[in-house]
Amino acid sequence: MKKIIYVLLAVLIILGACSTGDAAAATTAATGAVFGESSEALVFLNCKAVSEDEIEFEFSQSVTVMSVNFEPDLSVASVENGSVVKVKLDEIPEPGVQFTADLLAEDAGKNTINVIVPFRSRNNRMPKLVINELFTEYSTPKAEFIELKMKSDGNLGAMRVVILGNSTASKHTVYEFMPCEVKNGDYVVIHLRTLEESCINEYNGNIEESGSTNSSPTAWDFYALGNTKLIQKTATAVYVLDQDDNVLDAVMISETPDSWWKKDYLTEAAEFLFEKSAWKSLEGEICSPANAVDTSGIKTAKTKSISRDENAEDTNTAADWHVTASSGATPGKPNK
């Protein structure tokens, strides 16, 4: 039936990536043509899960929805037409689940548009947390990792960990969580390579499920795909975002006390994190390499980590951090 509609209406098909919070992060690619009475192109702009049971689709002009479906299936309670289409769900899905929406709409000029776009369900239960430990050196079969420590109960679904490393390959990396219930005090370790078949993402509620070399029976273990170096002791920014691009925690590291960052995206990260009150210099200004966590003490060691002082107040500065002695990495355990 849908194929017949496409032929009769000459639908413009848009395949887009839907951000659950950041419209600037949404990407779209269009193929086909628009036919109708209006010469003004009808454009899909963004979609967003605005609440646990409501999804918004934004267009360049007012539209009337002809059909909307979700995969996996979601029951729709109501649809409000307009330039911002509001789809009210008849159920509340698990937080942070990835869905695909298939929406067919028409504007006043009879121009039609078919949007097929992934999105994450709303997660209003993200835990408070801190970035607790960074392990930057790769030594087979132990991969680099980022450890988070939970400061409240919650669910990790749709939480994003952003890594801006000092190389083209790791210019912008995001790990986005699927739903996972966590408790206050839990450790969560994101291993930055998948090296073994035993590298299992622990989304099934079993904290001991993963059996990789650097996994921990006392931490929730998750794995970034691939075998590319993503974090460098030379210079890296790491931060955690919720669905509205609020920064839950951040850290910047540098091996040299330069006056400013050599990469534009690290400069932008320092400015962004300062504006979000997530990371700053000891003087309360935008962080430069000289004010970042000093990683020069790692040198050529393969077993040192960059660790937070878990007993100190979080100041969002380098004062909270230190480089451990050799064999100081402690994924899933209190820091040394």
Characterization of the model:
By secondary structure, the chain is mainly beta. It folds into 2 domains: 2-120, Immunoglobulin-like (Sandwich), CATH 2.60.40; 129-323, Sandwich (Immunoglobulin-like), CATH 2.60.40. It contains 2 helices and 21 strands. The strands form 4 sheets. Strands 1, 2, 3, 4, 5, 6, 7 and 8 form an 8-stranded mixed β-sheet that branches. A 6-stranded mixed β-sheet has the order 16-15-10-9-20-21, with no helix packed on it. Strands 13-12-17-18-19 form a 5-stranded mixed β-sheet, with helices on one face. A hairpin with a 7-residue loop joins strand 12 and strand 13 (173-176). The longest helix is centred in the C-terminal third of the chain and has 12 residues, at 264-275. It starts with a helix and ends in a 13-residue tail after the last strand. The model is unreliable at 1-35 (pLDDT under 50).
CATH homologous group name of the largest domain: Lamin Tail domain
Provide the CATH top-level class of the largest domain.
Mainly Beta
Number of spatially distinct domains: 2
Structural class label: mainly beta
Topology, number of strands: 21
CATH architecture of the largest domain: Sandwich
| Proportion of residues in helical segments | under 10%
The radius of gyration computed from the alpha-carbon positions, rounded to a whole number of angstroms, is 23 Å
Shape: globular
Strand portion: 35-45%
Low-confidence stretches: 1-35
| Amino-to-carboxy terminus distance | 63 Å
Largest sheet: 8 strands, mixed
CATH topology of the largest domain, what is it called? Answer: Immunoglobulin-like
Mean pLDDT: 89
Helix count from the secondary structure assignment: 2
The H/E string reads HEEEEEEEEEEEEEEEEEEHEEE
